[in-house]
Design brief:
By secondary structure, the chain is of the alpha+beta class. It contains one helix and six strands. Helices cover 19% and strands 38% of the residues. The N and C termini lie far apart (37 Å).
Length: 81
């Protein structure tokens, strides 16, 4: 069962609010969610998520990724042309 362990509010015009969720099986796995929003020029930014493996390094990675999402430093690109 996924439980939200930390929320990151949007901290830049290009960021998205982000959340880190944890699932215990008993190992702890992490899901980082970027909440839908808009960037600095009004373009819609859809929600997206990624999941990690287990362990303390993955916990730290998930928190760092969520913080970067909130700051507008990491996003999702679907157009790879």
């Amino acid at each position: 069962m996924w439980t939200c362990i930390k929320k990151f509010p949007k901290i830049s015009n290009d960021g998205q609010p982000a959340e880190v969720h944890e699932d215990r099986m008993p190992a702890r796995f992490y899901r980082v969610i970027a909440v839908a929003g808009h960037n600095s020029v009004g373009e819609a930014k859809p929600a997206w998520a990624l999941e990690t493996g287990s362990g303390s390094k993955m916990h730290d990675l998930a928190l760092a990724i969520a913080e970067a999402i909130a700051a507008g430093m990491i996003g999702l690109c679907e157009d790879l042309k």
